[in-house]
Specification:
Elements (H helix, E strand, L loop, with lengths): L9 H17 L4 E8 L2 E9 L12 E2 L4 H14 L23 H5 L25 H5 L16 H15 L3 H10 L19 E3 L6 E3 L9 H4 L2 E2 L1 H13 L7 H8 L12 E3 L4 E5 L2 E10 L2 E8 L4 E7 L7 H15 L17 H6 L1 E5 L2 E7 L5 E5 L7 E5 L5 E3 L8 E6 L5 E6 L2 E3 L23
Antiparallel strand pairs: 1-2, 1-11, 3-6, 4-5, 7-8, 8-9, 9-10, 10-11, 12-13, 13-14, 14-15, 15-16, 16-17, 17-18, 18-19
Helix pairs in contact: 1-10, 2-5, 2-6
Length: 460
Amino acid sequence: MTTSFEALLPGTERALLHRVAVAQSEGRAPSFVGAVVRDGALVWSGARSCVDGHAPDSDTQFRIGSLTKVFTAVLVMRLRDEGLLGLDDPLERHLKGTGVGEVTVAQLLGHSGGLAAETPGPWWERSSAALRPELSDVLGEQPFLSTPGRRHHYSNPGYTLLGSLVEAVRGVSWEEALRREVLEPLGMGRTTVDPVAPHAGGWAVHPWADVMLPEPAESLGLMAPAGVLWSTAADLARFAAFLAAGDERVLAAASVEEMRAPASPAGEGEWEGGYGLGLQLLRKDGRTLIGHTGSLPGFVAALWVSVEDGVAAIALANATSGPLTAAVAADLVRIVAEAEPRFPEPWRPLPEAEVDEDLLALTGPWYWGTYAYGLRLGSERGVVLEPLRGAGRRARFRVLPEGGWVGLDGYYAGEMLRAVRRADGSVSHLDLGSFVFTREPYTPADAVPGGVDEAGWRGL
């Protein structure tokens, strides 16, 4: 019997709305919108406002700030997948004359290019783009703070470079590429560069008094790929579903998964988080969240996805500071994941074509020295190697056309696993990046490097 639970339970919905209400009240936000996505669908949204009866809904635009960077990263990954650039390519190969051309595409995506966090001159988010008409105005005379590749240092100018890179390679504006290649395929018609009604106004709330001041909404010019977009909770729900599973019309699931992997070392004080290729990574409440936060004067935003739970959440507010949207979005994920845990997919046997006697013969226990491991079959003739007790180096492996397997994750990512056979065709051992795995621990006849004491195992 199959049971489907599309709507959330009333108790879960009340807990979500309570969290949004507390966030709006304690964060002193003119308005606050929260939304939850489960298994790719928007299943709840709620809002609170300082004006009774006029709370925004999931179709109200807010400015999302640096969440824009994820969209820019998706455009760059599309270029990579089309073979138009490589992640390890130096910027100079595709965008000439920047003065920082030795920085690689991957370093820019992961904020490890050594560039400054902000532009020189006035606060770029609150000043006219006319002050920065060229990339040289964005980068300044001393764009580097450290050697590229050494450490993570968040850089808004780095994403300006990536937006210009998209334009140089694609031959159209960043805005046009974004609309045509990402927003339209995903049905995100309410995500725009300029605000389109209904939209929230941006406000500064006085830190010591309950009074407000409107914030200006400047055009960002060259800085647009770092933080210009306006969007809605409903549109961001569609984007969250894409970040969880990919979409062949935009980016394959494997490429989105690649974006979610850590791409640069965490900065000081960031050991519970990290950064992938355009995505922030966070460990909170025992789960891994991927997504991004954002802010511009008058607005704060956050989107987090727990791929394992199948739950994502969005939090949007129209205040320069105060509302903790990142914490709220994480709490919305936790509330749903704990109150209504995901049902596992039904167990099913592997397809007949993926199983043969030779593969089955390789399954079971193997020993690396005296460490006990188990090898089991995965999907599409892949295998999984994992320790039988305690912590160890677990990894999935994908089958190769020429034979053997290649590691997909963990310590053995990219490493080769193969079955070494004797002259009579029987399996002698497994070779994994030069490590020998045998059927028994240290048997004299086995091909264990360094040999095995002929006297064998003994007692005291």
